[in-house]
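Entry:
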Amino acid sequence: MNLLQMSFSGAAFITAVVIIRAVAINKLPKKTFLVLWELVILRLLIPFSIPSMFSVYTLVTHSISSATLPETGTDYNIPTMQGLFVTTQGVEQPPADISSSVSIWFIVWCAGIILIALFFVISYLHCLIEFRTALPVNNHYVEKWLAERPLKRPILVRQSDRISAPLTYGIFRPVILMPKKMDWKNEKQLQYVLSHEYVHIYRYDTVTKLIATLALCIHWFNPFVWVMYILFNRDIELACDESVIRQFGEKSKSAYSLMLISMEATKSGLLPLCNNFSKNAIEERITAIMKTKKITIFSLVLASLIVVGVGTAFTTSAQANNNNPTSDGQEYKTTNASENASDYNAIETSGGNMDYGIYEEYGLIYDKDSKCYTYKGNVVRFFNDPVGGASFTNFFTGTVDIEAERDTNDKLIGIRECTKEIYDRHTEKYENSGLKSMPAGTSTENGNMIRNHESYSMESGDKTENMNTLQDYESYGVVYHPKDGYWYYNDQIIGIFIDSEKPIVYFNDSGSIYLSIAKNSENGVMEIKEISEAEAQKLLRDNNSSNSASFTVEEP
């Protein structure tokens, strides 16, 4: 997945969580929403997803396909935006021939990341300087409280006149910072405050807030991510409040709420490394505290179902639709990258449209500038997916050989580099033809295919339909058989037909006779001559060197 796809998926997930939160914020355990937000953050940071039949995108694409599209093998991947980056050695990099518009967008995106990150870093460093003026707390109750709650990480309690509300900062050596004007004799209030901050430390809330800040920096352009960041910080406080209430019982609700109100707290702002005991959304916190109920088996089951269901629906991607029916005995047709295709993902074949977009999330990317497919930043020389009916070869500029990876149920699960044996098995019949060594010419696309029983003009690059490929030569005894779609000469299927004058080259892998047509040197009359396969290969090489045409041949 590219950056825009990740951000789009994250926005959809955030919308779902916001709706669930609005409906059930006081009906489910508050930890439920923290788990949902953490799944959202993972969706925003992890550049891949697992296809699933339970994905919301599978339901959407299947609904669109059944309502408005013909049944084909196409998997309309949602979202289908062309990638801002291509993956190279596991790291996302800009394509080599990136357009100026994308370059401007990349610069703006990087500038935004730097500015947002600087804001957080400078804010934290400023506060850290302020916190260094804090003094140790010499209080019997505080010392007793610390002794009763041992952690592997040492906890310090300090006081400062620079703050008006308790807060926690630090990861490996966490510090609970208290206002200097705190009522140190009110042990009940101290108990609530310290317990609240202890929950932050115990749950590593500082780390999760830091990761959420990282997601915000990367997706700063997405307003939904800003909403997520604000609500996530609120829900961290709500979850801590709930934990304290459950620890001290139902009777502590009023006293704990009054303690929140009495605190002259300031807003925490957007500090990634501090958990502030603040009055931010204080009404929401008090309402949630007063409505806190005992956790029941029903609420736990419901929360679990929501987390699993929503998480599965929005963290996974659309599953490829491999259930399209095919007629009995139908042969898979190979396809090629075509410059004239209206959509670079939809490649026209004799059997319909082949959508290479289903392989995009696994790294097969089409570069419109070079008109070649790439995998991990390298131009693909050979790709094969016999189950999906997709295959192409690019002898001229390709450097990597890959194949589709499917499970035991023929479900597409990835792309892998194929072995040399597989590549040789598909290309050995052309090893000696000289085709693989032909230079890439200007009259055709790199990697363009000549299919079974089709001809090709090496000058114009125009491919003709099967019925018309050799129609101009019928007067010389060439006959077309519509039953099998082959051209014959002397009742034999033509394998190669070469007209060196035009020039025209015709291929049919099922053919057994090789022909050339040229002017008789004595009378100047065009004559067809039967030649051997070796002579045909030599003639192909001679024609190629004189016309600088590029073409390849694929298996039937």
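The mean pLDDT is 74.
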